[in-house]
């Protein structure tokens, strides 16, 4: 039985009449179905694939962690790693072999057991495809060195010791090999099928996909960790405009929203019955240059733009809910330093660098690509336009959907001169940020700068395979300085989260390792 009348076509094009109902502002917005409460979340970013081996971003990871489990999981702040599918693990004295002991009784959504072979195969699949999270481990872990010892035990033998190994495992989700391979097409390892299907063991299973409109999850009653009265399901509605999100929250058409514009977030934060989360995130915003592009391959031009940029305007965009970066590393990353000479607006320096460039008098146009409908990124483009006028450089603003932005940046030939990127490290270990500036990251959304500096590459590789932190820490100090010197981007700011939900939504948990708009549905419930 539903609690709402039909909501406006502008927000729910493509939905069936039975799907939603409007509640008055004082009424609870969640749905009831067969006595269970269904939470409705309004998000601005689509979920182009469900495949854990292929992609991850805030929207994809929000859905993946609802449907899948990993060996370990991040919780709390400061972030800590807790056992999940692995109830415990051991590390050999030489730091090469990790042995994981799996929980008993975990099942995939189709009833198959989650066993060591499923773990082994899932890692092998991701490593073989070389996409998504593969970059985290593929430099020192080969598929043939992952062994299913027995049904409950799996071992990983690394090529060389890697201190942050376990810090990356929460993002390697375990898939049901039987289910995925049964849907394989032309040797694709199930990639096409997993775009809009899932094969997980998580608390929720996929019920419905209307790409570009909504994604629906239903509670998996056989979940091995139990629910204790948690939600019966989740409806993830795609609402691209911040103003429409705010209206949906206030009218009782959504229970939880993320990504509101700063002004609209401040409005809902004052509303009765609304709870907000504004904790800081590991996420950093930067305007990344294509360092191999026709114009922006010129380091002097990049530095001219960086010194012309009005950084203080970034803070104003976020109504003070942001802090400027003092390093390529965000504040919670181990070994982060305040890099001397971090660029700030200085037109004298900007003109000095422009004079050294191939275009000393300007007279060029730079393309700036940003997320369509994301007002703050549009405002950043206006800052660029205003900042570069004095250098006689014009800016062409190009709004694209996130999927099209990623596609543009995936090839050096099509990656734009400048592209607005929010990047969240997947670990507090410095390798999680440094590797973004390694050639292995080229073409990923965090690697659209296409940076390729042999000296920096050597520094990153040496640091990531040094196990003694006393030796690693000074290496990362030099890496931060080197990255800034190469100017692969305008290093911007770290913003606070802007998550808002109605006060009947309980159990929201925060961990800075999660992306700024990422939500863990499992602990949520409605009171």
TrEMBL record:
Chief place of localization: periplasm
One GO CC annotation: ATP-binding cassette (ABC) transporter complex
Keyword terms, alphabetized: Signal
Localization, UniProt: Periplasm
An example molecular function term from Gene Ontology annotations: peptide transmembrane transporter activity
GO biological process: peptide transport
Record has Signal as a keyword: yes
Matches recorded under InterPro entries: Peptide/Ni-bd (IPR030678), SBP_5 (IPR039424), SBP_5_dom (IPR000914)
Domain called Solute-binding protein family: residue spans: 81-437
Signal peptide, first to last residue: 1-23
Superkingdom, natural source: Bacteria
The family this protein is said to belong to: Belongs to the bacterial solute-binding protein 5 family.
PANTHER family referenced in this protein's UniProt entry, alphabetically: ABC TRANSPORTER, PERIPLASMIC OLIGO-PEPTIDE BINDING PROTEIN, PUTATIVE-RELATED, PERIPLASMIC BINDING COMPONENT OF ABC TRANSPORTER
Protein name, per record: ABC transporter substrate-binding protein
Encoding gene, per UniProt annotation: dppAch2
């Amino acid at each position: 039985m539903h609690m709402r009348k039909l909501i406006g076509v502008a927000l729910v094009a493509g939905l069936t009449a039975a799907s939603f109902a409007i509640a008055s502002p004082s009424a609870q917005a969640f749905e009831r179905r067969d006595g269970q409460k269904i939470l409705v979340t309004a998000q601005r970013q689509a979920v182009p694939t469900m495949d854990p081996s292929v992609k991850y971003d805030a929207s994809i990871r929000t859905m993946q962690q609802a449907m899948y489990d990993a060996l370990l999981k991040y919780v709390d702040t400061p972030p800590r790693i807790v056992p999940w599918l692995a109830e415990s693990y051991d590390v050999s004295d030489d730091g090469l072999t990790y042995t994981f002991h799996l929980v008993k009784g975990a099942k995939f959504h189709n009833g198959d057991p989650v066993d060591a072979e499923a773990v082994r195969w899932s890692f092998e699949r991701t490593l073989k495809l070389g996409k998504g999270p593969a970059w985290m481990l593929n430099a020192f872990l080969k598929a043939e060195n992952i062994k299913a010892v027995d049904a409950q035990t799996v071992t990983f033998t690394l090529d060389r010791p890697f201190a942050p190994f376990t810090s990356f495992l929460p993002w390697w989700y375990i898939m049901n090999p039987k289910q995925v391979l049964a849907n394989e097409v032309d040797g694709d390892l199930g990639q096409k099928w997993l775009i809009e299907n899932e094969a997980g063991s998580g608390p929720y299973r996929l019920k419905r996909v209307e790409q570009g409109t909504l994604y629906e999850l239903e509670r998996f009653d056989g979940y091995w960790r139990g629910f204790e009265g948690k939600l019966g399901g989740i409806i993830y509605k795609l609402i691209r405009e911040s103003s429409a999100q705010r209206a949906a929250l206030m009218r009782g058409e959504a229970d939880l929203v993320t990504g509101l514009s700063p002004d609209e977030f401040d409005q809902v934060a004052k509303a009765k019955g609304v709870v907000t989360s504004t904790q800081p995130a590991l996420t950093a915003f930067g305007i990344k240059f294509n360092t191999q592009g026709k114009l922006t391959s010129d380091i002097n031009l990049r530095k001219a733009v960086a010194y012309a940029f009005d950084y203080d305007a970034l803070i104003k965009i976020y109504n003070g809910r942001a802090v400027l970066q003092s390093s390529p590393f965000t504040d919670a990353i181990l070994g982060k330093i305040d890099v001397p000479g971090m660029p700030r607006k200085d037109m004298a320096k900007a003109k000095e660098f422009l004079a050294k460039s191939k275009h000393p008098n300007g007279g060029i146009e730079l393309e700036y690509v940003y997320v369509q409908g994301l007002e703050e990124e549009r405002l950043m483009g206006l800052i660029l336009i205003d900042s570069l006028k004095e250098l006689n450089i014009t800016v062409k603003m190009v709004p694209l959907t996130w999927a099209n932005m990623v596609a543009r940046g995936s090839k050096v030939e099509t990656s734009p001169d400048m592209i607005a990127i929010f990047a969240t490290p997947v670990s507090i270990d410095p390798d999680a940020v440094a590797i973004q500036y390694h050639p292995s990251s080229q073409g990923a959304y965090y690697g659209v700068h296409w940076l390729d500096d042999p000296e920096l590459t050597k520094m990153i590789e040496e640091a990531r395979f040094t196990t003694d932190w006393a030796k690693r820490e000074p290496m990362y100090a030099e890496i931060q300085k080197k990255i800034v010197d190469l100017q692969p981007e305008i290093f911007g700011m770290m913003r606070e989260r802007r998550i808002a939900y109605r006060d009947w939504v309980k159990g929201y948990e925060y961990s800075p390792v999660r992306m700024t708009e990422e939500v863990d549905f499992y602990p949520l419930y409605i009171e």
